[in-house]
Design a protein that fits this description.
Layout: H1 8-18, H2 32-50, E1 58-62, E2 64-65, E3 76-79, E4 90-92, E5 104-107, E6 110-113, E7 119-123, H3 133-152, H4 155-166, H5 176-187, H6 199-202
Antiparallel strand pairs: 1-7, 2-3, 3-6, 4-7, 5-6
Helix pairs in contact: 1-3, 2-3, 3-4, 4-5
Length: 215
């Protein structure tokens, strides 16, 4: 028998079971529970995807160059792709992402640079079906922490589930299930290819990005 696909409804029901509740959520549910999921699901997305530059959702894009000449002094403007999570991890002039841009600016969803070709390595919003099962498991545990007080009025249960997912405040979000997943993800990356963004050290950046997509 084939295993059921992991989707949003399944992950929410995992979270409910974590709280000792019946797994009764469905995507089209117009109930108090459905309203709470609508509130806390985006927060859990923002928090879990913001913990680390996850390789499973990383994608490199050749940016589309705009026809208009920028008014801010750079030679070219480029469109950032839609559906990305946060700012680009790295902006480069080569597809291998080995030559980072050192002079650029970002305003809104536009990258400005003097290079005629720009690549962006980004975190891409993915449907839950594309998440690794271990990530989905950790996400359900963290989601349970968000739902604990509204559904059970138990603040201790909230703290327990949060600690299980990301560790205690002393770990700075690098403990629990996600702490182990981060360590595994880093261990699988090539030596000498750290997963931090060059925007923090290389260029002038501004503007804002959506930290979560529609899942």
């Amino acid at each position: 028998m084939a295993e059921a696909e992991i989707d949003k409804a399944m992950i929410v029901n995992w979270a409910l079971v974590e709280l000792g509740l019946a797994p009764k959520f469905s995507i089209d549910e117009q109930t108090t529970l459905g309203g709470l999921v609508d509130i806390f699901w985006p927060r859990a997305i923002a928090r879990t995807f913001g913990l680390h530059d996850w390789t499973f959702c990383r994608q490199t894009f050749l940016l589309t160059r705009q026809e208009a000449t920028p008014v801010i002094g750079y030679t070219y403007g480029f469109d950032l792709p839609g559906g990305i999570l946060g700012p680009p991890l790295k902006l480069t002039s080569d597809a291998l992402c080995n030559v980072p841009l050192r002079d650029f600016a970002i305003e809104g969803t536009t990258v400005f640079a003097n290079e005629p070709v720009v690549y962006a390595r980004c975190k891409q919003a993915l449907d839950p079906a594309a998440w690794p099962p271990q990530f989905a498991d950790g996400f359900a545990t963290l989601l349970a922490s968000y739902l604990a007080v509204p559904l059970t009025q138990d603040s201790d249960l909230k703290a327990d589930k949060e600690a299980a997912a990301i560790g205690t405040p002393a770990t700075g979000g690098a403990g629990g299930i996600f702490g182990r997943l981060i360590a595994q993800d880093r261990a699988g990356s090539p030596v000498g290819s750290p997963m931090e963004t060059d925007i923090l050290s290389g260029g002038r950046a501004g503007g804002a990005y959506p930290w979560f997509g529609r899942f």
